[in-house]
Write a structure and sequence with these properties.
This protein has about 550 residues and is mainly alpha-helical. The protein has a single domain, classed as Sodium/glucose cotransporter. About 70% of the residues lie in helices and about 0% in strands. Helix 13 crosses helix 15. The mean pLDDT is about 85.
């Protein structure tokens, strides 16, 4: 049976499961819609959190970036993994004890101000829409290649599926759908990794195969061979770093604190029954996330090695069928500059091969000649990763509009039924905007997502941390800090990523820090501005200080 047939079967079955869960878990109250009724168990929440957090950037794009950047790509592994540890230890239990629905809810109540709430709503919408842009791009890539439909059609199909289970089931439907999606995505990521590890090194454990000898009789280690292949083509050694140390530090820290400030991940800890379950689910999620994250470097090395050996300096008319199929999507292309019919893949102006980083994980099983069902399974995994995170983000957008804006600011007396209707309408419009980003993607999945982390780092992280651990922080300081941080990050992102305000190349970066890492600088600006403004304005009321003390007092559970 062909790849397309297998894809229709496997993707069809997984979509049927997601829709079935949505019908089973349809909600009738706002509490169920926003936080699944607060009754999700630790294991279910841990699996859902892992799926929510491991987006298309983790599944599709991270290994792709590492396969091209080599050592430099490790910043994504360190930043995202370290950030989750930071979130689990520093924020999750306290936010669960606070017991609200959303991050803007916490900001608004902690800083006793609807203006603070409105700023937080703006930040949540900005972060979520930036993040969801990467997810929709991932959906479009998978559909365009494996189901051989137009990218726009693929994005629309993905939108409809997400809309169905997000609007019908709310957080309750999303939670149990994400449990299923975690199972699909981790199985889809690990199966081909195990196959290829055995194929290349004879070791069935990819994490060990990554550092093992090749079984081709050369007695070379995988990374040693990859270094040699890269050097032969004019690239830096795979295991060498080229980024400035300050940029590595900045990107890693921005991703860490950005993770700890992501509203769609934080809201997951409002869904559990008690504070102890928030801690347990955080630990469970970290363990489940580690399975994919420790495998990603191996997948990156396997994919890079196979790509170079399969394509470089080979006659174009002899390229495998997978190359032609991906060429139809525009994500890989060959331009015969010297008209010799050979694919000249080198790190110079004579390079004739363009490879989109986002195809590396998805194309890897095809390059390695794995069975068609494995190739189709990876497609289903990519969709599961993208849709699970997209659903979580869409719920954040929906809740920010219906609960934080309409219920808490504009119409406090709105009925629960009307609020639920507003939440579903908000989700519908959010899906439409997400679809636009999928059809008009602004860049690589992981690169776009990294910007979302920078926005979260520059806005939410300082406000949440000081809101929990520094009871003197007042509303004026928090608002000024958030506006200064996210304003600076937006300016830098637009200037150097989208060439507004004069633009410029990497040589023009401030302090040598790329847009993906500038969230670190913007975060420090947030802290400094917040502390300065706090010291020249009225102090925090005593009842707010008592509330903060109560958040930090452990419960007997």
């Amino acid at each position: 049976m062909g790849i397309q047939s297998w894809t229709y079967i496997i993707v069809g079955v997984t979509f049927a499961i997601y829709i079935g869960i949505a019908i089973w878990s349809r909600v009738k109250s706002t509490k169920e819609f926003y936080v699944a009724g607060g009754g999700v168990g630790a294991w279910a929440n841990g699996m859902a959190t892992a799926a929510d957090w491991m987006s298309a950037a983790s599944f599709i794009s991270m290994a792709g970036i590492i396969s091209f950047a080599g050592y430099d790509g490790a910043v994504y592994l360190m930043g995202w993994t370290g950030g989750y540890v930071l979130l689990a230890l520093l924020l999750a239990p306290y936010l669960r004890k606070f017991g609200k629905f959303t991050v803007p809810d916490f900001i608004g109540d902690r800083y006793y101000s609807n203006n603070a709430r409105l700023v937080a709503v703006f930040c949540a919408l900005l972060v979520s829409f930036t993040y969801v842009a990467g997810q929709m791009r991932g959906v479009g890539i998978v559909f365009s290649r494996f189901l051989e439909v137009d990218i726009n059609t693929g994005v629309i199909i993905g939108m409809l599926i997400v809309l169905f289970y997000a609007v019908l089931g709310g957080m309750k439907g999303i939670t149990y759908t994400q449990v299923a999606q975690y199972c699909v995505l981790i199985f889809a990521f690990m199966v081909p990794a195990i196959f290829i590890s055995i194929q290349m090194t004879g070791n069935p454990i990819p994490q060990l195969g990554f550092g093992d000898q090749l079984n081709d009789g050369s007695s070379m280690y995988l990374l040693e061979k990859l270094d040699n292949l890269n050097v032969e083509l004019g690239f830096n050694e795979y295991t060498d770093n080229t980024k400035p140390l300050i940029d590595i530090f900045a990107i890693t820290l921005a991703l860490m604190v950005g993770t700890a400030g992501l509203p769609h991940v934080i809201v997951r800890f409002f869904t559990v029954k008690k504070v102890a379950d928030a801690r347990k689910s955080a630990g469970i999620a970290l363990l489940l996330i580690a399975i994919l994250y420790t495998t990603a470097p191996a997948v990156a090395a396997f994919a890079r090695t196979n790509l170079i050996e399969t394509i470089s300096n080979k006659p174009y008319h002899e390229v495998p069928q997978w190359f032609k199929k991906w060429e139809d999507t525009g994500l890989i292309s060959f331009n015969d500059i010297n008209n010799d019919g050979l694919i000249n893949y080198v790190n110079s102006e004579d390079n004739e091969l363009y490879v989109d980083r986002d195809i590396m994980v998805l194309a890897n099983p095809e390059i390695a000649n794995l069975p068609n069902w494995v190739i189709a399974l990876v497609a289903a995994g990519g969709l599961a990763a993208a849709l699970s995170t997209a659903a979580g983000l869409l719920l954040v957008i929906s809740a920010s509009v219906s609960h934080d804006l309409i219920k808490r600011v504009l119409y406090p007396k709105i009925s629960e039924k009307a609020e639920l209707t507003a939440a579903r309408i908000s989700a519908f419009f959010a899906v439409c905007v997400a679809g636009y980003f999928g059809i008009n993607p602004p860049g690589f999945v992981a690169a776009v997502v990294a910007l979302a982390f920078g926005l979260a780092a520059s806005s939410f992280f300082p406000a949440i941390v000081m809101g929990i651990f520094y009871k003197k922080m007042n509303k004026q300081g928090a608002i000024a800090g958030m506006l200064a941080g996210i304003g600076l990050m937006l300016f830098y992102m637009l200037k150097f990523k989208f060439n507004f305000f004069g633009g410029g190349d990497s040589s023009s970066y401030w302090f040598g820090i790329s847009p993906e890492g500038f969230g670190t600088i913007a975060m420090f600006v947030n802290f400094i501005v917040a502390l300065f403004v706090m010291n020249i304005t009225s102090p925090t009321p005593d009842h707010i200080k008592k509330m903060v003390d109560n958040i930090r007092i452990p419960e007997n559970e």
